[in-house]
Design brief:
Low-confidence stretches of chain A: 1-8
Helix content of chain A: 40-55%
Oligomer: homodimer
Structural class of chain A: alpha/beta
Mean pLDDT of chain A: 95
CATH architecture of the largest domain in chain A: 3-Layer(aba) Sandwich
Distance between the termini of chain A: 64 Å
CATH class of the largest domain in chain A: Alpha Beta
Strand content of chain A: 15-25%
Largest sheet of chain A: 7 strands, parallel
CATH topology of the largest domain in chain A: Aldehyde Dehydrogenase, Chain A, domain 1
Radius of gyration of chain A: 24 Å
């Protein structure tokens, strides 16, 4: 039934098959790097169409995954992440078309300059090569990651969660048929055809140089394992422990809107605020209404002694709470003695992801944005804008907190490298 | 005598001391990241001055290193790399002033755009953090690396070769006094105060997160060890196996100038050509004079059967020669059947460093430059232009062939990361 090779069950069989996938992906990457925008777009169009055409088969495969997950007693939240229906399948197809319609980053001249000796130097975007994506139960990652990697001219090796194995395989069959239809090699987007967990370890070793970068998509334990074991570069963030600091010169109305949005719009996203810092200069007027607004919106508040004084519903915050990404309707609240104290708190407990200051004092904002060493720093805006779509990147495969290469939202441009093109007229070096 | 702490001789002592250096470098990096251009420049000026003032002490320390190297029977070439004299010390000081006079990359706005909701997003350069530099016998690397790291706002941990230990320590004392004079922490530029080789292994592990990137400066075995063992990102190239391809539509005069320069200007630099590919379309007219010019210039030529026919002085090339960086006056010469064959040869045997095509056919040049996947590709210019100074970067700490972050010459801009600054007026995310 499947176009995928089946794997022997032994470790040597898995390793041989994975190395073969790596070699074929590397060869496909060379072809993709030179594919025209039109050819890549044709493949993306055909992929989206194939996903629509195969919607029923994809949902049937998904039903088998869900039945197994139910037998294994998975939680309703887990089942919901795993579940597909015709509307979700259509959203996947539309997502591929959205990526198709982004500007092609490959070949774009990033900089160009002339040297006194007449040499013309250009820095031009090229694909990274082969991207390994390791994810968990959400089957739509198969389509999203495939589209972003292909648009940016990269080959991809996708390793989905065991729980969504049948769903991902059905989606991958549609992707392969789209590549075929556009005359691109099916090895451009490979799905690891086994649930054997050893495949992940092999990917983290780089498949003998075949993988250029690994992107984990999933929970903290997955990201931690990938960051710990990978011998190739990783684009990821382990924690999104984001802060909103309400400075002494903040408007209460603006602070309330931003804090509520940063915490409560969606509590599970990595850009959700986890700690509210209120400056003692405005705590007398701002602390009580901010805490009340959060509580009234259904948020649990864990506060320091001052926050507990202003509202009896506030629970005591532990030392651990300051460093925790709750991922839920819970926030830690602390009164700080000023801008320096706020910055020191963010540096000590934060995760260098996204942090915001609310203030009408431009100098205070400038200092916060200079000194807080996070991928994204905001002034008078919600931390929930930490998102490739909101940045205008069209789509993202994740957010990175490392300092190398990709930092912040990882969209198609961040999935590229560059090369220098130098044009001369016979120049030799003296 | 030395301002450096001495290290206990046991492994636990080395580890504790190295972790302490890492922690102090990390703290210094935060101060350096916020240091003004004027303050960094004042430190660089004071460093250069201190090197001049201490020239005699530096040369005396160097004499001790040289005496030891002689006792140990080191080669004259090794002694020359190690040796300092007043002119070389002055060149070090002048090099620091040259780096001082480069534009400060930190704080530069790389991109800025407005979103429909009124958010203003800026991408701004920030330092990488702490850079570990591992090098061999050339003591001037101590000054060069210190200057480039400081100019780009980074702290540095320098680990010089055992053979130049006393020289590097004397140079480092001058650097420390320059930092002091400018009010910057001396931990901003640390020199590992031990010859214990275990210190290198500890740096490659990242000193518990204190090192953001490692840059090896030295021979192939050093680079190979660093690339193999490092658990943090590495900016380096293992090989510089560079090619010049003389296309069928090349001018003979231009090809001869470029080939001679690419091979013979300096044979030991990483951008020196190691293989000459001549297209069979012009071999009848171009092969003999190109080979003769190389031989007449004192270059050993190892050729395929056609190259051996045109000149009896040509030795046979082995399979291994195509993949070898000779680093000497030796070149491998091969006749290829066309552009595709040339590109395939470069991809099979090259090191993705720097490769050049000589041709008057623009379409052929464009195809070569698109398909050859090297950090630098040149048209009608010598491969010896692979150099940060020649690119206009002012100075370089090396050339990288990895695809992540820094590719090609690594100058002060490549020693930076970036952050996103987002300015709003109270925006929340719908």
């Amino acid at each position: 039934m499947s176009a995928q090779p089946s794997l022997a069950d032994d470790a040597a069989g898995t390793e041989a098959a994975m190395l073969d996938i790596g070699r074929r992906a590397r060869a496909a990457a060379r072809r993709l790097a030179l594919a025209s925008t039109a050819q890549k777009n044709a493949a993306l169009t055909a992929m989206a169409q194939a996903i629509r055409t195969r919607s029923r088969a994809i949902c049937e495969a998904n039903a088998e995954d869900i039945a197994e997950a139910r037998r294994e007693g998975m939680t309703p939240a887990f089942i919901d992440r795993l579940a597909l229906d015709p509307a979700r399948v259509e959203a996947m197809a539309a997502g591929i078309e959205m990526v198709r319609d982004l500007a092609d980053p490959v070949g774009k001249v990033m900089d160009a300059w002339d040297r006194p000796n007449g040499l013309r130097i250009e820095r031009v975007r090229v694909p990274l090569g082969v991207i390994g994506v390791i994810y968990e139960s959400r089957p739509n990652v198969t389509a999203d990651a495939a589209a972003l990697c292909l648009k940016s001219g990269n080959a991809a090796i996708l390793r989905g969660g065991s729980d969504s194995f049948r769903s991902s395989r059905a989606i991958h069959q549609a992707i392969s048929s789209g590549l075929d239809a556009a005359g691109l090699p099916s090895a451009a987007i490979s799905l690891v055809p086994t649930r054997d967990r050893a495949a992940v370890g092999l990917m983290l070793q780089g498949l003998e140089g075949a993988i250029d970068v690994i992107i984990p998509r999933g929970g903290k334990s997955l990201v931690a394992r990938v960051q710990d074991e990978a011998r190739v570069p990783v684009f990821a963030h382990l924690d999104g422990n984001c802060h909103v600091y309400v400075h002494g010169a903040a408007s209460l109305a603006m602070a309330r809107d931003i804090v509520l949005n940063a915490k409560m719009r969606r509590t599970s996203v990595c850009g959700a605020a986890e700690t509210l810092l209120v400056d003692e200069a405005c705590a007398g007027t701002h602390l009580r209404p901010l805490v009340a607004a959060l509580l009234d919106a259904g948020c649990e508040v864990r506060g320091d002694s001052l926050a507990r004084i202003v509202d009896p519903r506030v629970k005591p915050a532990s030392e651990e709470d300051w460093g925790t990404e709750f991922g839920d309707a819970i926030i830690a609240v602390k009164v700080v003695s000023g801008l320096g104290d706020a910055i020191a708190h963010v540096e000590r407990y934060g995760s260098h992801h996204t942090d915001a200051i609310v203030t009408n004092d431009q100098a205070a904002a400038d200092r916060f944005m200079a000194e807080v060493d996070s991928a994204i720093v905001l002034h008078n805006a919600s931390t929930q804008f930490a998102d490739g779509g909101e940045f205008g990147f069209g789509a993202e495969i994740g957010i990175a907190t490392g300092r190398m290469h990709a930092r912040g939202p990882v969209g198609v441009e961040q999935l590229t490298s560059f090369k220098y093109r130098v044009r001369g007229t016979g120049q030799t070096r003296p």
